[in-house]
Amino acid sequence: MLTHMTVILGIMLFAVAIIFLEVPYMLRKRLKKELWVFSILLLLAVGISSAKALQRDIPTPLDWITAVYKPFTDFLTHIGLIK
After folding, report:
1. Residues with Cβ < 8 Å from 50, sequence gap 6 or more?
2. Please, which pLDDT band fits residue 42 given cuts at 50, 70 and 90?
3. Residues in contact with 26: Cβ distance below 8 Å, sequence separation at least 6, in sequence order
4. Which of 1, 21, 50, 79 is most open to solvent, judged by the fewest CB atoms within 10 Å of its CB?
5. What are the residues whose beta carbons fall under 8 Å from the beta carbon of 77, sequence distance 6 or more?
6. What is the pLDDT of residues 59-77, one digit of tens each?
7. Which H or E run includes 83?
8. How far apart are CA 4 and CA 50, in angstroms?
9. Where do the TM regions start and end (predicted)?
10. What is residue 1's predicted lDDT score, i.e. its pLDDT?
11. Selection from 56, 40, 37 nearest residue 48 by Cα
12. What is the pLDDT of residues 30-39, one digit of tens each?
């Protein structure tokens, strides 16, 4: 079994490899907006992957939807429209 730090190091190495492949092309073509989006998405992906490697609980989009609609559902239950 690999240690958590080894897995995170592998994630970082893959991220660096992706950066070396993609960023020079974007800089050459002057794709500034695309470079910002690429950077944000790569940072988000590395963060989520690292958290999963550390066995952290990552909320899904369904958890956020449930949190938003829960008060409304409770209200409808309270007034008797749903059971």
Report:
1. 8, 11
2. very high
3. 34, 35, 38
4. 1
5. 83
6. 888 999 999 999 999 999 9
7. none
8. 9
9. 6-23, 35-54
10. 59
11. 56
12. 999 999 999 9
Q: What is the DSSP letter of 80?
A: T
Q: How far apart are CA 77 and CA 67, in angstroms?
A: 16
State which amino acid sits at residue 42: L
The domain containing residue 68 runs over which residues?
Answer: 4-79
DSSP letter at 30 equals T
Domain count, the chain: 1
Question: CA torsion sign, 14 to 17 to 18 to 19?
Answer: positive
Cα separation, 43 vs 1, whole angstroms = 26
